[in-house]
Amino acid sequence: MTRSASDSPLLFDIPLAPDFSEERRRLAQGLQYIAGIDEAGRGPLAGPVVAAAVIFDGNDLPEGLDDSKRLTAARRETLYDTILAKAITVSIASLSARSIDKSDIRKAALEAMRRAVTGLTRQPCHALIDGRDVPPGLPCPGSALVKGDQRSVSIAAASIVAKVTRDRMMIRAGLAHPLYGLEVHAGYGTAKHRAAIENDGPVPGIHRYSFSPIKGRFNI
């Protein structure tokens, strides 16, 4: 496992909004395509972990990009369409609840990121990854950026694409399993969700049996 050694910023070094400076720094080194990578869904009790990878043309960047957690759902939906229209290439990958249970959420998230990068239609020369870890097996060098979705527009775009994609998946799951309210809380452990698990049990293939309070109490 490769970890970033020196990309953790001081609080006052984080810009008010993400920009393209991290990408431009690599482009100035002669690298052609710089991918931003992020994931959504590490914490929920149900559903997949979803990762996205995005490569932009620095001369045609969408406006208003930010960490997906700092945007409203409506704003994320609008930016999602804009990102797909403007990006050179976008790739999305996910690992199911069963896959998460077979390893652990950290490994599953990193594997989803790796798959997202390999799905890009342009081979990136470098990858910028939100967090502290560089996924193993990337087809290019990578740098882990703490709070990267607040620093890099490419990572911010990836965070939006991953979040919107996962939310849409959980809406579909909610229609299939209406007792749990998945379309409302996206699988997070709200009081209503926990009560539904207690009363009706978890759903195989949807819930993460390796997560508390499901772990050790229910069998698949």
TrEMBL record:
Its EC number is 3.1.26.4. The keyword Cytoplasm applies. InterPro entries: RNase_HII, RNase_HII/HIII, RNase_HII/HIII_dom, RNaseH-like_sf, RNaseH_sf. It is found in: Cytoplasm. A divalent metal cation binds at residues 38-39, 130. SUPFAM superfamilies: Ribonuclease H-like (SSF53098). Its cofactor is Mn(2+); Mg(2+). Manganese or magnesium. Binds 1 divalent metal ion per monomer in the absence of substrate. May bind a second metal ion after substrate binding. PROSITE patterns: RNASE_H_2. Gene3D superfamilies: Ribonuclease H-like superfamily/Ribonuclease H (3.30.420.10). It catalyses: Endonucleolytic cleavage to 5'-phosphomonoester. Pfam families: RNase_HII. Belongs to the RNase HII family. Endonuclease that specifically degrades the RNA of RNA-DNA hybrids. HAMAP family: RNase_HII_B. This is Ribonuclease HII. The lineage of its organism: Bacteria, Pseudomonadati, Pseudomonadota, Alphaproteobacteria, Hyphomicrobiales.
